[in-house]
């Protein structure tokens, strides 16, 4: 990462250029990255690997097994279920707050990685275009890999048909967009750049991490998310903004989550 990507935003946000001594030494910075990932998507990657090992050792092919993404948290008790859904959504964003705090402490801010609302037209427009590109490609990869027996049957939602299902699914999609793109693209690429990593190596590491925490869905989606990570990483290096990626990811997941409620079982070529 070059100074052109992040330093102007930090200076604009703080009013004066951040002091180079604000950053901890490289050893502490490495530990910071490890701790953030251990509390968020690094842990999710380990969990996904364990889940995939369980899938491989279970009877039946991958396509005969199911991966559910959003599930009830209190059967037959809608208000308790809703409370637990909202609680889980809110606290799952704690690592994003931690990242914002750590960057502020090092003389930067969330604006350093383009996580702000200063350019709504650009963010929404490019985010929608990325969502169309990645969403269409991801759907194709899922259907083809499922038919080849390389991917589990992904059930985006198993909620019970409550009045609040769609709002919760939309919030879940937004949570995924914020959590994944802020941490795995914006924060991770920024910090790896400060640690001296070459941009392409940082993007590759970010993309491999993204692929691994989706491994529970199967081999096909592992490679689909690897490509998504490469595209998103290139975009971030090119424009220095993570917000369009948050928009794109949120739109993709809204279509997947909410669309599954109305389309799965009604369209012949969609696995269910």
Automatic annotation (TrEMBL):
Q: Which residues form the CAAX prenyl protease 2/Lysostaphin resistance protein A-like domain?
A: 163-254
What keyword terms does UniProt attach to this protein? Answer: Membrane, Transmembrane, Transmembrane helix
* Region forming the signal peptide: none
Q: Could you tell me which residues belong to the region Disordered?
A: 1-21
Compositionally biased tracts (Basic and acidic residues): 1-12
Segments traversing the membrane: 33-56, 86-103, 124-144, 215-237, 244-265
State the name under which the record lists this protein.
Type II CAAX endopeptidase family protein
């Amino acid at each position: 990462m070059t100074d052109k990507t992040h330093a102007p935003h930090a200076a604009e946000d703080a009013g004066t250029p951040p002091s180079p001594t604000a950053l901890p030494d490289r050893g502490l910075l490495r530990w910071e990255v490890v701790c953030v990932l251990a509390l968020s998507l690094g842990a999710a990657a380990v969990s996904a690997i364990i889940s995939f090992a369980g899938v491989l050792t279970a009877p039946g092919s991958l396509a005969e097994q199911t991966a559910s993404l959003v599930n009830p948290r209190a059967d037959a008790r809608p208000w308790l279920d809703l409370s637990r859904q909202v609680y889980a959504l809110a606290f799952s964003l704690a690592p994003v707050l931690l990242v914002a705090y750590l960057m502020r402490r090092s003389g930067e801010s969330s604006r350093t990685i383009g996580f702000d609302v200063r350019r709504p037209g650009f963010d929404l427009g490019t985010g929608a275009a990325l969502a169309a590109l990645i969403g269409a490609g991801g759907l194709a990869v899922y259907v083809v890999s499922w038919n080849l027996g390389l991917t589990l049957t992904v059930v985006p939602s198993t909620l019970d048909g409550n009045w609040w299902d769609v709002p919760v699914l939309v919030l879940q999609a937004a949570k995924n967009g914020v959590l994944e793109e802020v941490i795995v693209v914006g924060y991770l690429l920024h910090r790896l750049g400060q640690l001296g990593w070459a941009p392409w190596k940082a993007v590759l590491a970010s993309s491999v991490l993204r692929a691994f925490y989706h491994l529970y869905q199967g081999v096909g989606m592992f490679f689909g998310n690897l490509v998504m990570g490469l595209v998103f990483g290139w975009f971030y290096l090119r424009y220095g903004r993570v917000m369009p990626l948050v928009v794109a990811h949120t739109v993709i997941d809204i279509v997947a989550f909410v669309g599954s409620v109305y389309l799965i079982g009604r369209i012949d070529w969609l696995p269910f």
